[in-house]
Structure prediction request, 995 residues.
Amino acid sequence: MLKAPHRLGLVFFPAYDWAISPTHPEREERLLYTQDQVWEEGILDIDGITEYRPRPAGIKDVERVHICVPDVRSRAGDSDLIAAGGALVAADAVLRGEVDRAFAIVRPPGHHAQRIVYGNRGFCNINIEAIMIEYIRRRYGPKRIAIVDTDCHHGDGTQDIYWHDKDTLYISIHQDGRTLYPGSGFLPEFGGPNACGYTLNLPLPPETGEEGFLYAVENLILPVLEDFRPDLIINSAGQDNHYTDPITNMRFSARGYARLTELLQPHIAVLEGGYSIEGALPYVNLGIILALAGLDYSWVREPDYSPAKVAQPREITDYIARLCRETYAAWRQRHEIRARSVAGRKEISRQRRVYYDTEGLLELQKETTLVCDDCAGLTWIDSRCADRGEHILAVFIPRDACPRCRQEGEKLFRRADRRTYTGVYLQDRPEDLLLKE
Amino acid sequence: MLIGLDMGGTHTDAVLISGGEVIRHVKVLTDPADFLASVREALDTLLEGRDPATVRRINLSTTVCTNAIVEGKTEPVGLLLEPGPGLNPSFLACAKVNVFLQGSIDHRGRETGSLKVGELEAAKEQFAAAGIRCLAAVGKFSVRNPAHELEIAKRLEGSYDFITLGHRLSGRLAFPRRVYTAYLNSSVWRVYSRFAEAVRSYGKSRGLKIEPFILKADGGTLTLSGAMNTPVETILSGPAASIMGALALAPGEDDCVILDVGGTTTDIAFCAGGVPLFEPQGIRLGPYPTLVRSFFVHSIGLGGDSSVRIADRRMAIGPQRQGPPVALGGPAPTPTDAFIALGMLPVGDRGLAVEAIEGLGRSLGLSVRATAHSILDELAAGIAGAVGRLLNYLNSRPVYTIREVLTERKLEPRRVIAVGAPAPLLKPFLEKALGLPVEVPSLAGVANAVGAALSHPTATLAVFADTERGVLTAPEIGWQERIGRSFSLDDARQRAFALLERRLRELGYTEGTPEIEVIEEQSFNMVRGFYTVGRNIRLKVQNRPSLGGLKGGGNCHA
Prediction:
């Protein structure tokens, strides 16, 4: 049999007994044909490829990242906990040195789940990559981590969770939000006041082809990673940029995904979206697996593939080149940009409306962050969700909190008027605690 | 009367069972140059003074095919592969002549690229040039739709002695295993055919009224002639014979460990609720992972004749066997010498054994007795360590549904059955090392032949039904039929049971109704757009290997 040049751990959790609803894209059948292909290829007989059994993530693993209102069990089901747990198993395999890379092929996905969770957004309840990353830091010590999100949808949940964290670089390439859910992910979304530039968005136009994706990887993502020098690279490996995906408009191929993976060399890949369950997923997942393992993927080919299906017009090529240039320039000037935007200010606030599409809930947020040169800065969010009858205050003491931000945070939590809010939450990352009153 | 025979690398064991009791057993040396001679010698001894016409069943476990493969004495094969898209298939070129065909079938069994007839004609010339007489044809996803393999057979059969078609070997998805299994099957076809023919004419000359059965690695049997199509199924049946024997002699409905302690190796197997565990995909033979259904058996290089030495001031045993024990003229001390030195085993020259054990213990400052105990403790600890690691592995195997993750059932053995020649003496040491009661049946030395005698035909059957395509396929028996849109999982189950029962009858199953069980079943609604367009049903059924014919199990060795 074959031997894989890179040892690869696979966590396969197709959740064959769970669906959002019978005809929903996120249904039992989604990974069936992927499993068929992976089995038929004999992937698990390859020397150096090991399959791991998923386990449910703990409540504490979720609370380290999210404030679920009113609590974790009300918002995350068994399938969510096992999908997140699958990512934890993948991380353990890599961090313990049992394998060089790992791929968690799990469902449901997670990258639309934000810090505060009232319900399901874009098929996601809890953010499985973020849960994995914070588990890694808790268990294996501080790490500089880069997340490269190659799902076709902007990973607004992951962006929200790492908005203030300059130890976690979040780069997303996705279909332009003016043409696709969730409608965000533009260049000006560049990170919070103390992590300016550590969120990078590259909104690609509809009809972007193979050339455009690989151009963005080679001309933006790789140079930024070179500058950032992460300890770990995580790939949110959504597969809905495929030319057959029913709910997006891109023109990427299985071999293109494999090439992207080969360029990116992620330590851990986590499946996100991808709903062309027969035409794309079996081939894309196979391509990613082979690329991660360092095996030849040149024979991976969709039955209906043709170069014309992944070609892009000239103007898209030029547009993407310009986009990459501007974004890279902004990244290089991130310190200057931050200096200008925080000059003379003690705290910075923003207001947001967060829509939960699956259940039709609307959340209104006012978020405030202390400008801080010593840590990620204290952040608090005043959040209302009338549909759920909730009005909460959530206080976030960051992982590297300085004494001032910690004190301010504790004071805010103690003094918050219990009569105004249905719940007051304190997420204390350094102490690994979630307090709720 | 029932006869069971297990041909091992060194010995051939055979038993005669009558009235539910083992009334005769023999052990003869295996002659690797003439396997049939060993069979003849063992059977002649068993049947001495008895009427061969009263023999109701003869089950043979043979190493004919295993040996041919291990020693490279197989026939050159022409391999026709239709790999389709996916892994680079060049690593599958295991035969003398390998031909890669265009054309492809996808996961649903739809043709996505047609077979090129011209390529077959070119292949024929290559085969002719290399003097190839046996072929194997395997396509990716051929178990979902065997049309291309069937077309290849139609165009080539007649010109060759034998063709293996991949889809007939197993319903499992695993293209590389299907390739290796098909290749091996064709490569041993001739050596098996000759053996089968020789056995048949021997039986006729002895006046046997029945057709012998051949044992498989899954503890089941198939007829001598039935195995002509799938001789690869006869490989590595020896461990299965021992497991079946252990279960016949020490039956139970619990989780248990089965140890077959031999001279060079110890085989480790497990039962869950009284049923042996299987390899999830199939057995591995040398470099080839296969689809040959087999019990889960792990072999470690520790046995009664493993050589013992001192390394880093510790007792080190195996994995090599340098020869017989010192007491029997061997070059290096072995655990058997330890038994002999302790006076537990009255064979060979005890003085030599004591001297050898003493020599080992000197550098550690141990007495003969302490050294001998230390050797046996170390042997038992080695086996116990392997059992622990295997349990850990088995209990961490992946599962795919929420229900399975949340209600994981762990394998928790409560007892150990040990068979094989050294087992009775090793029992106290194993109990200490494993922390579990160890049962050693009284016929532990010929458990393998007992197991062979009591086995019945087994078969598995995979059924795929796709109501959108309107097709039901059972690849192993070459079955395809049209189904309607309302065909359900229940319908599929009934169909699978009926087809399997029919197959078992063809394989020579003559007992009552076979006990058929479902080992996997899944039914998925296929949704395209907002509509359910059909159901995709997958089902695997099998009959459990069963044991019959022994009165009240065996007696336990005190």
